Amino acid sequence: MDLGPDIDAASDLDFDTALAMLAWQVELGADETLSETPVNRYEAARAEEARAGEARAGEPRATAPRTGQAPEPMPMAPPQNDGPDPVAAAREAARAATDLPALAEAIAAFDLCDLKKGAKNTVFADGNPAARVMILGEAPGRDEDMQGKPFVGRAGKLLDRMLGAIGLSRSGPDAENAVYISNILPWRPPHNRDPEAAEIAMMMPFVARHVELAAPEVLVLMGNTPCAAVLGRRGITRMRGKWTEAPELPLPGLPVLPMFHPAYLLRNPAAKREAWADLLSLQARLKGQT
């Protein structure tokens, strides 16, 4: 394969195009650069093992216990106090928020989640806070992180079309036909990885308070992460379309509908049939038909 023209073209790239290409590679998961000089990684690994062996050689050897003599227990390291309990701190900050603007400020000021350090923006919510329907997604992606709003990338555009098909809109001023959208996490995980359990647990007091203050009539959970966070279980292909409740949320009896995340539908177009059935179920619930 002749790669000459591509190489020549790459040498004429302007700064913005080159930066966009680099960002695209990082998005795909590239985590190191390679030089033009070949590197023997087997040799590098052996050298690293040799250095580790030399370091161990200077350490005192542990004396093996005599036959019949139980080994002495290893002394327990004292517990490390790394600062305040992040879940307790989140719970206290969430409880102190008396309305949605105050909650948004409390989340933006919360500094105990490391995800915040690598995010460009805190993604709080979008849509009409008085809407009958509240949607919880997983975590911001690249576009959401850049714009500070949930569901604004390709998945967001698909979500808007899905909602429009049953007469709902995030931009509609009429609460009857509007939606209110947020995420389990307000900050983008690196390389769009799945949120970790500790990160979800840390932010759940804010999520619960968010749902309580918005007080929707229906809660839609899009994807495995919000289902795991709110319902305590995963398996969206089995859970989707089945109405349930979330006893851990501060709104007892709130109807909850798990659905496929729009990003999943972009990767698996055949699942749009099930998503359409779920949308019709949501529409029927809002019309009092179920």
Keywords summarizing the entry:
single chain, 290 residues, alpha/beta, Uracil-DNA Glycosylase, subunit E
Q: Can you tell me about this structure?
A:
With 290 residues, the protein is an alpha/beta fold. The protein is built from 13 helices and six strands. It has helices at residues 4-11, 15-28, 41-57, 86-96, 100-108, 115-118, 142-147, 154-164, 197-214, 224-231, 236-239, 262-267, 272-286, and strands at 126-127, 133-137, 179-183, 218-222, 244-245, 255-259. It has a six-stranded mixed sheet, sandwiched between helices. Helix 4 (86-96) packs antiparallel against helix 5 (100-108) and helix 4 (86-96) runs parallel beside helix 9 (197-214). The longest helix has 18 residues, at 197-214. 31% of the residues are buried.
Describe the structure concisely.
The protein is α/β, with parallel strands linked by helices and 290 residues long. It contains 13 helices and six strands. It has a domain at 86-286: 3-Layer(aba) Sandwich (Uracil-DNA Glycosylase, subunit E), CATH 3.40.470.10.
